[in-house]
Amino acid sequence: MDGTFGAGGYARGLVEAGAAKVIGIDRDPAVHGMARDWLPGFHGTIVLREGTFSELDHIAEEEGAERVDGVVLDLGVSSMQIDTAERGFSFQKDAPLDMRMSQSGESAADIVNGADEAVLADLLYLYGEEKASRRIARAIVAARPVETTLQLAEIVAGCLPRQKPGEKHPATRTFQALRIAVNDEYGELARGLEAAERALAPGGLLAVVSFHSVEDRMVKRFLQIRSGRMGQGSRHAPEAEAEAPAFEMVTRRSVEPDEAELALNPRARSARLRVARRTAAAARRVDEHEIGMPILERRSRKTGEGRLRR
């Protein structure tokens, strides 16, 4: 299963490597429109379904696969989405502040213009690891309404020191945080790892590519816990019987791109790959706290009540 189908690169690579069938999943309607031009040439060996990878076990069953031999997840925004300026993922060109992978639901503009200043600051700090989150949130609220990508990028840049040659754009972390919030990417990842565990047959492989530290930490902790390499539960609670490992680690450390790959694909610079093999142990629920998932609790706009959980 290719849980993040995009332009279909993984799916085609898997078929070329010998997979009898690949079930692809993507929530972006644009992906499905593009795939219609080339999918027929694979004569049913690649099937594309609209949905999210947190549903992959149910989608597999609907496609007649009680268990699958592999699951690949390539997290985050795709190059296709970044390069389509009107989708609002990039600060390189002016466009509506959108960032919705599914092209439905709450947009980045809705969050930027509707959230409390404190909630917005928490979101930027927790999802984007932005140290100047409170300063940026204050500036955004003062500038409302904020409707375009360049308008937001200029507000953020005005809150931070001038960019030096070779440094990331000052708005990088803010845009990352908003994209993650709009698409519930951390929640989707936690549920997707759980779904992959349910879907994989014994001996099946889970391969996850992440692009920033929080995602990679969540994947790492999940695999450490599920392979028995990290303790479970609170140290203050009575000692419980250890669960049978659901995975065996294939890569002990994350695999990073080499110079040859970076020469072909510079966007892979921050990519980290982790791979594990499924055992016959029973699947179980994911504890979001144990795997280090950042959790933002929205405050009431009227009272400001609420709190941030980490």
Automatic annotation (TrEMBL):
Superkingdom of the source species: Bacteria
Molecular function, one GO term: rRNA (cytosine-N4-)-methyltransferase activity
Alphabetical UniProt keywords: Cytoplasm, Methyltransferase, rRNA processing, S-adenosyl-L-methionine, Transferase
InterPro entries found in the cross-reference section: RsmH (IPR002903), SAM-dep_MeTrfase_MraW_recog (IPR023397), SAM-dependent_MTases_sf (IPR029063)
The keyword Translocase is assigned to this record: no
Gene Ontology cellular component annotations, sorted alphabetically: cytoplasm
Main localization of the protein described in the UniProt heading: cytoplasm
Binding-site positions, S-adenosyl-L-methionine: G8, G9, Y10, D26, F53, D74, Q81
CDD domains in alphabetical order: AdoMet_MTases
Catalytic reactions of this protein: cytidine(1402) in 16S rRNA + S-adenosyl-L-methionine = N(4)-methylcytidine(1402) in 16S rRNA + S-adenosyl-L-homocysteine + H(+)
Pfam families noted in UniProt: Methyltransf_5 (PF01795)
Record-listed E.C. numbers: 2.1.1.199
Claim: Metal-binding is one of the keywords in the record: no
GO biological-process terms attached to the record: rRNA base methylation
Subcellular location: Cytoplasm
Role, per record: Specifically methylates the N4 position of cytidine in position 1402 (C1402) of 16S rRNA.
Membership in a protein family: Belongs to the methyltransferase superfamily. RsmH family.
Descriptive protein name: Ribosomal RNA small subunit methyltransferase H
Annotated source species: Rubellimicrobium mesophilum DSM 19309
